[in-house]
Amino acid sequence: MKQHFSFLILIFLIILTMSDVTFGQSSVAITIDDVPNTGKFRKDNFTSKLLKELDSLNVPVTVFITEGLLYKGDSIGKNFELLQNWINRDNATIGYHSSQHSRYSEVGLDSFKIDVERGESVIREAAQKHGKSVEYFRMPYNDLGKDSVQHAGIERYLSSKNYKIAPFTVESADWMFNYIYEYYLEKKDSVKARETAGKYIAKTLAYFDFFDSLALKLYGRPISQIYLCHDSRLNADYLPVLLAEMKKKNYKIISFNDALQDKVYKQKDNYYKKWGISWVYRWMKNQEEISFFQKQEPEEDSYDLYKKLMQQQKQQ
Asked: Which residue segments constitute the domains of the chain, with CATH numbers given?
């Protein structure tokens, strides 16, 4: 009788664990790089559609500011007003993304320090005006260095300036889809532009399915995902659509700080190459394991078109 009772308890615990993994609500933090998009801001008569959409959705986001974008064009004063509007948003956490978006593995630590320090006082001062701090730094291209020496060097440097390196887990090459999307809009081909946006949504959802499945294999449970995207025309038009689709899939949109409370983010980054891969891969022990799972990612069929369009524009 006692053995039977113990067996029932064991079965109950297994079912309880399985239900948590299978039916528990997934969560994701939305992070946006290269804020503010001052070029689109000017074209749109000094309005930010993406900012307005996020305000209407009332969801938390973390924005990583590229300070050099503030000096693009001839409307610097308005660009700074846009920056203040982003920072003043109640649900916005403010991060820094460097001034000139240089690639760390190429320029080296000394030059990259100049890139960081060139614009950080502007961003910190702007944040302080609204009672906010700047704790997180996202490396341009998520390039933390070409080897373990560079990797350790940038970690020490950013830590000395009270920055934490901002991770992500899901990224779907929205920059590539945006390039194709804008190309078709400029060609007045609204059909292909919509098709491109549809591919972006579908591909992003496929990546979430993939990394959710991978998390279950590695950790036996859902993890708090962090999505990386950009301040772009595509996301101004379709990020609300993506978020609506994610909510249909039972995702809860949470803050970046809340996502980082997941214990998976306490793991060591073991990846010492320059490529900006997901932190789910960076936590793996060796390159063989990374390569094994990368080969299982959703297939990408838009990159050839992207390269073709890029080449066409270079020849014009």
From this structure: 25-173+223-285 (3.20.20.370)
Cβ-proximal residues to 65 (8 Å cutoff; 6+ apart), any chain: 35, 36, 83, 86, 94, 95, 96, 97, 123
Measured CA to CA, the distance from residue 264 to residue 223 in angstroms comes to 7
Nearest C-alpha neighbor of 257 from the set 164, 160, 118, 126: 164
Residues of the chain with pLDDT under 50: 1-23
C-alpha–C-alpha distance, residues 236 and 217, integer Å: 34
Beta strands in 212-293 (DSSP E): 224-230, 251-254
Asked whether 26 and 250 are in contact (CB, 8 A), the reply is yes
- Angle of helix 190-219 relative to helix 174-186, nearest 10 degrees, comes to 170
Helix (H) or strand (E) holding 227, with range, is: strand 224-230
Q: Is 170 in a helix, a strand, or coil?
A: strand
For the chain, the residue count is: 316
Instruction: Provide the total of helices (H) and of strands (E) in the chain, helices listed first.
Output: 13, 8
User: In whole angstroms, what is the distance from residue 259 CA to residue 297 CA?
Assistant: 23
Cβ-proximal residues to 178 (8 Å cutoff; 6+ apart), any chain: 230, 232, 233, 234, 235
pLDDT of 49-101, one tens digit each? Answer: 999 999 999 999 999 999 999 999 889 999 999 999 999 999 999 999 999 99
The count of other CB atoms within 10 Å of the CB of residue 157 is 15
In this prediction the pTM is 0.91
Angle between helices 76-88 and 49-57 (to 10 degrees): 10
**Alpha-carbon distance 86 to 63, whole Å?**
8
Tokens of 21: 């993994």
**pLDDT tens figures, 17-55:** 343 334 457 999 999 999 999 999 999 999 999 999 999
Q: What is the DSSP letter of 144?
A: -
